[in-house]
Every structure is written in structure tokens, then in C-alpha cells.
Amino acid sequence: MKQFLILFTLLFFACDKQASFQVPEWNAYDETLELSANESHDIPRMRYKLIQSKFRDKNEIWKDVENQLSDFSDEDYQRIHRMVYDNDIIGIQGHVESKDLSYKELVQWYLYRILKFENDPKTSLYAIISLNKNAVKQAKAMDKKRGEIDHPIYGMPILLKDNINTEGMPTTAGAIALSSNMTSDAHIVKQLKSKGAIILGKVNLSEWAYFFCQGCPLGYSAVGGQSLNPYGRMQFETGGSSAGSGTSMAAQYAVAAVGTETSGSILSPSSMNSLVGLKPTIGRLSRSGIVPISSTLDTPGPMTRNVSDNSVLLSAMQGFDADDGKMQESRSLKDPLKYDRILVLEGKRFGYFEDFLEQDLYREMIEKIRKSGVELVGLNNPDFDYSNFSNFLSGDMKFDLPNYLKNQTGEEVSFKTIEEIVSYNLEDTLIRMPYGQLHFENTVDLQLGKEEIEQIKEEMQKAGRIVFDPLEDQKLDAILSINNWHAGPAALAQYPCLTLPMGYKEDGEPQNLTLISSSFDELNLFSLAHALEKNIPMRKNPELFNDQKEME
Asked: pTM (2 decimals)?
């Protein structure tokens, strides 16, 4: 009997040890060859100076994950894979409803997947800045309370761009100056949590939302390092500034992600990562608690792998915020989940830009749309003067960023002015600003007064609306563009844009079709995009992150 007990004890601890999860240590590697290979890249911005962050040790990110995966194995990952990989929110919720899957397992599956790819130098996208150390605990609570909240986002793991204030994780904007910025939740984060969403973590971005250095790589930040594109890690740009939101969605690190846009920062990474991205009308979602560039143009928005999930995430973020002067209560509370899921495009009227027909994928898509019964109207692509756009943004940032620093940062942040941050960065340029900080310096040096800035803004917003006059003049349901190519005029006009996969160039680089419509017309955009997605499906997953084949 005694021998049996000894044997049982040894087997128990052997099994327990085998089941325990240990994260392999991340060791910084010599990236010289990778950097050298890109020294002559056709795109100057991709001639990187560095890839790995010189500030943040990845092991600091992983330290709170190991215990959350202590009862999760590779066998669990493979079992759950068929229920989660490339599935939409409604489909995942169906597996939870049938009790084949729990929210706890769902969160663990994504954490495991993040570690699987991000802890390997050959596949890391440098997408993750921080992870929620309580994510599994919160998911277990969601399992117990299932049915108390009736919203599809309930129990779903969501990633946030790291310029969105989030309790329990620093909000850095990718900048070392904000690396200890512990805040309360932004308004949209409160809305997500109130509907049961689980904030899985924060993702990398172009530092200060790409209004920091000029001509620098998209997706680089001092805190997060250089974001890389899953469709071609050192080959294609990630898009910016919501680079981590885009790359993490393409690699399937969460159900959905939130990005922010001033001019193209959701549309660009959504396009470069073959995603559905919505830049909502200014005033549709709150901006309180988000590190700003421009209170005139900034907005958060959903980035997902399909139209349905996009509408779910937008719905979950909604809620009137009296502290955001751009919000209109009657406008902001419409339910995006109730868009008309049309499958027939016949009878719709789209405008397209005739000079864009030189682009192969655009031309082919226009023909496919024409064959689906849409009436197409050719449009001239008017020249647009961007010469004052930097002054427009600097004029807003000069007031908006200090306001954020004063009122919405944590106690650990001592900076109150842009000048102070500029001086701080100059103390260690190699670590804090390897590509310079020209936009910050120009903002500090801006000599325009408020009246001059307001005049610039008024003139540019008027010019932006003129670009889309055909929407009303030609009675169009939407205007069709490419990627973020009309992001500037649309931002100035305060028109919503929805981008969705259009195909892939010969070298594999994704390209998107972007629908633009009138203010607060998101439901129409969802309807049209849903029909395009179902009738002309174009999205493919990046091959490097498709581990289904290994399991078949």
C-alpha cells in the first residue's frame, strides 16, 4: 500500500509538472541582417533603423500571462482552434451557447496564440505592448454571469490601440514619456466593459498616432518597437497609425480591435492587413480619454475581419458622452446591429474615380460590381491641397494634447506641455526619438493664432466636402475609393468611411476598397459592405499565421 501511494504521488507531480505552462524566455537577437536586407527597400520608410524595442523587454509583457495559462495546453489550443480561428462573433457565441466552449477557454486560446507567434523572432509582429493580467479571471466571471447582459460582445476578448486610456494597463501612445501613464478607462472602454467585453491587452501604434516624426516608418514606437505586416513581415508596410490593431487582427490575436483615426489611421492599417475598418462620423463615438492629435478630426473606430463583427464592436462602444462636445445624443444612440443585411446590390448607385482604373484590383472590382447590377457613375478625382494640413493638425494639437496631459493622464505623468516632452526626448535621442520629432517641434514653433487656425480649418473642411459633392448631386449611395487615398478629404468633410478587402497584388500585398458616404450614414455603409462581402468575397488569411494546416 505504501509503495502504491509513493508511486501515485510521483505520477501526480509528474503529470502536474507536464501540464504546467511555462513561457520560454524572450532573448533579444541580432537584427543586423534583417536591417541590412531592407537598406535598399523601394519604400524609404521601410529602411528601418531598428525592429526590437530598446525600451520594453518582452518578458515584462509575458510575466503576467504564464499563470493565466497554467491549466491550458497545446492540445486545448488545437481542440478550440476549429471553433475560433477565422470565426465571427456570432459563430463563437454559438459554440459558447452549445457549451463546447467557455469564455475562459476563448481568452486562453488568444493568449496562447499571441505567445506562440509573438515570442518567436521569426513570426513576431511586435504587435503587443501590454496584456491584461486579469483577463482569464474576468472571463471566468463572465462564464458565471452568462445571460445577464444581452450583447454579442459579451465575453469577447478585445485589443485596444495604446492611445486609449485603460485601467490596469499603461496608456503610452507608444512614447517613453507616457510609459508609466496609469489612467482610468476612456469612455468607449467603459461602454465596452458595461456590455461584457474583456480587454485582452494594448497594441502597438505609430508613436503619438504618427504625428511625431516625419517620413519615419509606419507602426514604429519607442515602447513597442517596429510593427511588421503578417502578409510580408519585412516586405510590406503595416499602415498607420493603428498598426498594431491591424496586424493583430490579421494574425488573429483577438476577436476584434479598436483603432483611432485622424486622417487615415484606421483605413490605412485595415487596408494593409486585409481587414474591415470603419472610420465613423465625428461624434458617433466618444473621444474622451484618448490621447489626441485633433479634437476636430479624431475618432476611435472598429477594426475586424468581417463586416458583422465591425457592427458589433461599433455598437458596443456607443454611448453618449456629455464631455465630448462633438457628440450628438440623438445621433450617437442608433444601433449599428440593426443595419439592413442586404444581399442584392442591384439598383444601388456608386461613384468611382476614373483615374483609379489604372489600378488592376480596383478596375477588376468595379467590373464585378457592375455585373452585380449596380449603376456606376464615373467621377473626376479633383486635386486636393494638403499644404496647410500639418498646420491644421498642429493648431489643434497645440491645445488638445496639453489638455489631455493636464486632465486625463495618471499621477505618474509629470509632463504638462509639448515643449517639456520635446526637451525630454532630446536627452536620449537614440532611444526616445531615433527618427526625430519634427511634427512635435513644428507644433511648438507654430506661430499662428487661434483665428488663423480656425480660418485654415474652415477652408480645408469646405474643400473636403467639395470632393464628395457627387454624393448629393448624383444621388449616390456611396463613393468608391482605394485604401486611405481619400482619408484626408473625408476626415475634413466628417464623412464616414468603411474599407474592406478588395484583393491582393501579384506580390501578395493586400489592397482594399473603401466606401465613403454622408455624415452619420454608417448603417448604409454596413449594408453595402455586407452585400459586397457576401457577393464578392476577397479576404484571405496571411499564410505565415495559418496554423490550421499543421492540425489537419
From this structure: 0.95
